[in-house]
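Key result, reporting period 2: structure in, sequence out.
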């Protein structure tokens, strides 16, 4: 069959380190022939991102703080200036204050609530708006969610509400962008040992519960998420939009 993403250019956000799901997706995309444009929130983090992805097919790494409208405008212009179509966007961004994760949801303050929504949900809308004009051949937008969007998960709290907003945004974006042949989907990944996941209190307990109760009796492997993202971005996923794909060893069944 050959490389599934040969000749395609993909924007990937959210690579913080080698344990990031975005990093696993970048590895899968690169293996399947995609040229990558990466984003990082600061110049310092851009250097780190470039260092750990030097072995991949990275064309450029752009500085993008999704909380700053001027950065988003500059990001959109940078993509236009490249003079090539963008075929895929991977949105792997989320943030909540640690206290808002560990405290009962009812205690969430206004600022913490809005911060989680801004970074974790609205940024998908903003990035989709920036990328859509250069998806001139159609394309795929994929974001990352978690089961806490539809079920109560201990110590997930404000992030669960943000992920619910994210998944609703996927559906509305899919409807808006479908006439441009742009598909929008989410991958609901199982609990994975990432740096951000460790901010969730008692995360190790969650991993052990997955090993004991998930139908596959194991935790999710980052490469599985990467390969699912390849499917969604490739011709194989051409009829899939507005969906949430579970890659979680079956935990959504419980």
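The corresponding designed sequence is given below.
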């Amino acid at each position: 069959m050959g490389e599934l993403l040969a000749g395609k250019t993909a924007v990937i956000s959210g690579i913080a380190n080698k344990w990031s799901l975005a990093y696993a997706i970048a590895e899968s995309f690169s293996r399947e022939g995609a040229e990558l444009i990466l984003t990082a929130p600061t110049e310092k983090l851009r250097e780190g991102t470039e260092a750990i992805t030097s072995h991949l097919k990275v064309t450029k790494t752009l500085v993008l703080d999704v909380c700053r409208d001027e950065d988003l405008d500059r990001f959109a212009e940078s993509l236009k200036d490249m003079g090539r179509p963008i075929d895929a966007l991977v949105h792997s961004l989320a943030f909540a204050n640690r206290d808002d994760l560990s405290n009962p949801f009812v205690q969430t303050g206004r600022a913490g609530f809005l911060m989680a929504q801004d970074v974790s949900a609205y940024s998908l809308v903003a990035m989709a708006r920036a990328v859509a004009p250069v998806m001139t051949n159609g394309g795929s937008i994929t974001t990352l969610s978690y089961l806490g969007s539809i079920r109560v998960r201990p110590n997930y709290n404000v992030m669960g509400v943000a992920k619910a907003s994210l998944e609703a945004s996927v559906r509305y974006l899919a409807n808006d962008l479908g006439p441009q042949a742009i598909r929008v989907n989410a991958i609901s990944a199982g609990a994975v040992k990432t740096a951000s996941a460790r901010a969730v209190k008692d995360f190790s307990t969650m991993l052990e519960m997955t090993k004991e109760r998930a139908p596959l009796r194991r935790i999710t492997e980052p490469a599985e998420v990467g390969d699912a993202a390849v499917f969604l971005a490739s011709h194989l996923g051409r009829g899939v939009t507005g969906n949430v794909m579970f890659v979680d060893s079956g935990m959504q069944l419980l």
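The helical segments are 21-31, 43-52, 69-81, 98-102, 110-131, 157-177, 203-213, 222-233. The first strand starts at residue 9 and ends at 12. This case is discussed further under Risks and Mitigation.
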